[in-house]
Amino acid sequence: MKEKLWGGRFKSFTDKNVDEFNASIGFDKRLWREDIEGSLGYCRALGKAGIISEDKVEVISDALKEIYREIEKGDFSFDEGMEDIHTHIEKALIDKVGDIGETIHTGRSRNDQVALDTRLFLRASIIEIDRVAREFQLSLVEVAEKHLDWIIPGYTHLQRAQPVLLSHHLLAYYEMLKRDRQRYEEVLQRTNILPLGSAALAGTTFGLDREFLSRELKMDGITSNSMDAVSDRDFVAEFIFTSALLMMHLSRLCEELILWSTEEFNFIEISDSFATGSSIMPQKKNPDIPELIRGKTGRIYGNLISVLTMMKGIPLTYNKDMQEDKEPIFDTVDTVKNSLGIFTLLLKEIQFKRNNLYGAVEKGYLVATDLADYLVRKGMTFRKAHYVVGDIILAAQKKGVEFNDMNLNEMKSFSALIEDDIYEAIKPFSCINNRNIPGGTGIEMVKAALNKAREDLKL
Asked: Is the pLDDT of residue 385 over 50?
């Protein structure tokens, strides 16, 4: 049984079952980079404050950097018997430099240390997620540009509603990801704040220059209240919430791709490289990747509920419950990055079926609103026009025809305002291009949106 760094007031070792249950080294060893980075900065702050001499700062720093290189190369042996990554790194430091290493924890608690490590980890993770989210946005833009003038049915209530450009449909998801990235940026601002100097809960008695330490660690400021600093996990909940929203957006697109790939829709073909087959039904081609991303979305929701539930009844300040935030954090980071990465590749390999898309637009009276608008432009009120078009639809349904199959006399029997220009007015492309309003599906507006997207992505 190893002696604990906190074992001075204890007369006996903890039960081995307690050690195993209490330990977090099995998962928080992922924080080794952040723990060493934080200790290097803290060491320089201790030196600046005159708490340790400059030569000792150099000795400790060199040893920490050596530990960093060993872990990076795989030459460091993680001891699962250690309590946590903070204890492990400190122990490794002491083993290298002796008693000098014991000074690194002067004025510091594991409470503000783990708060720092978590913030540093999330800072790096948010920056990386933003990068892969941008790549996903880029793939949406590229696919939209490739299919600029392709038409697809727009839906409400999963019923065909109005014709829209496929590129406009795809750019809706671009906008969702744009908001997600903005939210991550806002979370980053509240995450990249220094808690060190808060110690266990009341602040350190040593005169550390916290602003100096903040700059050393490339953080944007310092926490204002030591009790809040060590007990705050708002930034964790915000990060997972933002990730849950992003995954929800991915899941919605996944659901559409799954539907579109069915024989019932037959709008797309998912590449063989991103699909699987059935162990019993030879004809099957399953959209496993979209289904998995859709499923993993619920996993991120679970992580959010886990953290919120964990925090809801914790009194100030630090409580061991908070150890349980690490696995939801790590799982969320990995799931979001992997989902965005694989989805970006999949999206570029999807084959859209132009004839089937256009065929779906031509059936189901998707231009009914435009027929009503035509009557409005001729002088009829919209409410009356709505009823007139409804009557035309009933007549067409009884005959089993579309608007274009009805001759002009049939159309005029419903309103004398209808002229032979009606057929041009209700062509799907005409209906789309009549919506050349900012934010609309008109092709000029979609081109402008694509240009703006490329500008935003700095392409």
From this structure: yes
CATH 1.10.40.30 for domain 363-456: yes
Phi, psi of 134 (to 5 degrees): -65, -40
| Among the listed residues 403, 357, 293, 447, the one whose alpha carbon sits nearest the alpha carbon of residue 155 | 357
CA distance 161 to 148: 20
Distance of CA 428 to CAs 153, 261, 368, 381, Å? 10, 23, 11, 23
pTM here is 0.93
454: burial class by Cβ within 10 Å (0-12, 13-18, 19+)?
A: middle
Closest by CA to 435, choosing from 71, 190, 163, is 163
Q: So which residues are the catalytic ones?
A: 157, 278
Q: Angle 211-213-215 (CA atoms, 0-180°, nearest 5)?
A: 70
Residue found by looking up tokens 């700062």 in the block: 57
Q: Fill in the amino acid letter for 196.
A: L
**Both tokens assigned to 183:** 């939210």
What is 111-203+224-358's CATH number, 3.40.190.10, 1.20.200.10, 3.40.50.410, 1.10.10.10?
Answer: 1.20.200.10
Right CATH for 7-106 from 1.10.275.10, 1.10.10.10, 3.55.50.30, 1.10.8.60: 1.10.275.10
Structure confidence at residue 3 (pLDDT): 59
Tens of pLDDT along 323-368? 999 999 999 999 999 999 999 999 999 999 999 999 999 999 999 9
Dist. CA 271–CA 251, nearest whole Å: 19
